[in-house]
Amino acid sequence: MLSQQRKTEMLANNLANANTPGYKADQASLRAFPEMLLKRFEQENTGEFSLPLQKTIGPLNTGVYLQETMPKFLQGGIQETELNTDVALLDLNLPLNPETGSPGSVFFTIENAKGETRYTRNGNFTLDNQGFLTTASGLYVLDRDGARIQLSSEEFTLDEAGNITDAKGKTARIGVAYSDNPMSLVKEGDGLFRAQNELPDAYGVDGVLFKTEQGFLEQSNVDTAQTMTEMMTAYRSFEANQKVLQAYDNSLQKTVNEVGKL
Predict the structure, then answer these.
(1) Which residues form the Flagellar hook protein FlgE/F/G-like D1 domain (predicted)?
(2) pLDDT of 135 higher than 70
(3) Cα–Cα dist 248/250, whole Å
(4) Residue 222: which of 4, 20, 28 has the closest Cα?
(5) How far apart, in whole angstroms, are the C-alpha atoms of residue 77 and residue 203?
(6) What Cα–Cα distance (Å) separates residue 88 from each residue in 53, 128, 137?
(7) Please, which pLDDT band fits residue 47 given cuts at 50, 70 and 90?
(8) Three-state SS sequence of the chain
(9) CB-based contacts of 151: which residues, under 8 Å, 6+ apart?
(10) For the ranges 64-68, 95-99, 173-177, 180-184, which has the lowest average pLDDT?
(11) Where are the domains of the chain?
């Protein structure tokens, strides 16, 4: 029941972020606890002796638990916004990881409030009052060299290779990092991911092809229809287990109130 409740909470969070740019839907991994082997101990009388015996009854399943939740890093749909500060990452060729069998992923590089590097697929950027390119929550977007990007105005252009040119001719290249195993990243909320070690510059990784699109946003990859179906399945499973628990309670109540009177 607890595992189904937590799965329902995870799915509800996915639905709540169905319209969040760059959001990666979580998926649950349920795992069974180890089975227990039941045996019965008894005595067998053979005339003068009483011999202890063991008889195997069989295995007993001890339930399941939610082992972990992992983001699904499939690219979401691309939507045009016509805003200069919106940028989308388009995956063209991302090599498969030989260990996991899954492709890698590219991310924008972000500086959090503590000055640490974080990664996101949410390109819903804006300019603060000093002209720095930031996320919607006010975190700085970094360039390829790990420096903050300062522009003179929103009238800037960004080409498919990530090069930024503003109205005064200043140039920078937006920072994009590559992870060959994005499943190892830790979700922190607000669309940010944390890596155990700093990710390499995606522009310099052989075989990694992507492009940046100005005036576009990557949408959430949440499949609302599938998520609703999974929520109903999890709820029905929770309800079925609840009825089993109620049956045990009724049986125990009957044992205490009626059998005890004999």
Answers:
(1) 104-165
(2) yes
(3) 5
(4) 20
(5) 23
(6) 70, 20, 17
(7) low
(8) CHHHHHHHHHHHHHHHCCCCCCCCCEEEEEEECCCEEEEEEEEEECCCCEEEEEEEEEEECCCEEEEEEEECCCCCCEEECCCCCEEEEEEEECCECCCCCCECEEEEEEECCCCCEEEECCCEEEECCCCEEEECCCCEEEECCCCECECCCCCCEECCCCEEECCCCCEEEECEEEECCHHHCEEEECCEEECCCCCCEHHHCCCCEEEEEECEEECCCCCHHHHHHHHHHHHHHHHHHHHHHHHHHHHHHHHHHCHHHC
(9) 127, 131, 132, 133, 164, 166, 170
(10) 64-68
(11) 1-18+222-257, 73-218
With a pLDDT cut of 70, the percent of the chain lying above it is 97
The mean of the pLDDT values for the chain is 89
Residue with tokens 């977007």: 141
Q: What is the tens place of the pLDDT at every residue in 140-160?
A: 999 999 999 999 888 899 999
Q: Name the residue with tokens 């996915």.
A: 14
- d(Cα 68, Cα 1) in Å, to the nearest integer? 16
Residue 143 structure tokens: 């360039």
Q: Are 189 and 52 in contact (CB under 8 A)?
A: no
Cβ atoms 86, 212 nearer than 8 A: no
- What pLDDT score does 250 carry? 83
Q: Say how many residues make up the chain.
A: 262
